[in-house]
Amino acid sequence: MRARLAGGACAGVFHGAAWARGAAAERAPQAAFAVNCTWPGALAGAQRGPFFHVSTDLVFGAAPPPADGFGPAAATAPLGTYGATKAAGEFAVRAASRCAHVVRLPLLFGDSRGRGLGASDGLLAALERGEQPRLFTDEFRTPIDVRAAAEALVQLADLHSEPEPSAASGQTWHIAGRRLSRLDLGRALCHAHGVDPGALVPTTRAALGLAATRAADTSLDARATRNLSAQLARTLDSGSAPPFP
Ligand SMILES: NC(=O)c1ccc[n+]([C@@H]2O[C@H](COP(=O)([O-])OP(=O)(O)OC[C@H]3O[C@@H](n4cnc5c(N)ncnc54)[C@H](OP(=O)(O)O)[C@@H]3O)[C@@H](O)[C@H]2O)c1
């Protein structure tokens, strides 16, 4: 891949590959570092043109966000190995290429194509099995539908695909929806899918002994992305968590 990129095979690159499971990253930090940091840096350095590196809101979490959420220039401060390796990956990508953009995504929900992944598919499957999922009232995210996230990524690239470094290249962008707790996201998803939310059990990170290891609030401030174009603002609105009673 690196040789092909160096040979000019790709006009532009979206880099989304990652060691993306938090528990797996804790178990195998070196593998997580290789996939989340070393390789993105190597590929960004080899690519001749635009490179869009997908990162995560979990580069934050060790400190509370400002009122409007973490802006693109906020200092990263992750809680776990996954977030730490992704933060290191952002640094490696920027160090390797002045053309590279870092695009941070929030918690994603939506169709995972039968894999039971993301914030909605696993929850809906659990409810269908008659389980009573426990959802946090004290954990806040700015989730977005995965399809809207992908569309926004492409729209960003359409606006920022500089073949050479310029003042506009090498930026950090946030893609995000409205802020809400994990419980309220669960309620919104149930409402959107016509499922009774009565089986959802409110709980807290502290009650499950997870307050030290799960980020309380990694809300992203996506205003700079929204301000890029009316189309991007519409896309982020369309992917934001649906309203619920
Ligand atoms: N899901 C979320 O809520 C979320 C939130 C914020 C940011 N993100 C970011 O979005 C991106 C995608 O995440 P995801 O949740 O969709 O994760 P995912 O389902 O685990 O997908 C990760 C992808 O990376 C590939 N990959 C992993 N190790 C690889 C390796 N050594 N060589 C080549 N490919 C490798 C996997 O390939 P295989 O399928 O072949 O294993 C898979 O296609 C990541 O950069 C992640 O940090 C995700």
Report what the structure shows.
This protein is α/β, with parallel strands linked by helices and 245 residues long. It has a single domain, classed as Rossmann fold, CATH 3.40.50.720. 39% of the residues lie in helices and 13% in strands. The protein has a four-stranded parallel sheet with strand order 1-2-3-8, sandwiched between helices. A two-stranded parallel ribbon has the order 4-7. Helix 4 links the parallel strand 2 and strand 3. Helix 3 packs parallel to helix 4 and helix 6 runs antiparallel to helix 9. The model has no long low-confidence stretch (mean pLDDT 94). The structure holds NADP nicotinamide-adenine-dinucleotide phosphate. NADP nicotinamide-adenine-dinucleotide phosphate binds next to strand 2.
In short:
This protein has 245 residues and is an alpha/beta fold. The protein has helices at 2-6, 22-27, 29-46, 81-96, 118-128, 146-159, 182-192, 223-226, 230-239; strands spanning 13-15, 51-56, 100-105, 108-109, 134-136, 140-141, 144-145, 172-174, 180-181, 201-203. The mean pLDDT is 94.
Task: Figure out the total of helices.
Answer: 9
CATH class: Alpha Beta
CATH superfamily: NAD(P)-binding Rossmann-like Domain
How much helix, percentage-wise, in residues? 25-40%
Structural class: alpha/beta
Poorly predicted segments: none
Bound molecules: NADP nicotinamide-adenine-dinucleotide phosphate
The CATH architecture name reads 3-Layer(aba) Sandwich
Strands, total number: 10
According to CATH, the fold-level topology is: Rossmann fold
End-to-end separation in angstroms reads 49 Å
Shape: globular
The Rg value, from CA coordinates, equals 18 Å
Main sheet strand line-up:
1-2-3-8
Strand and helix order: HEHHEHEEHEEEHEEHEHH
Percentage beta strand: 5-15%
| Total discrete domains | 1
Main sheet: strands, sense, barrel = 4 strands, parallel
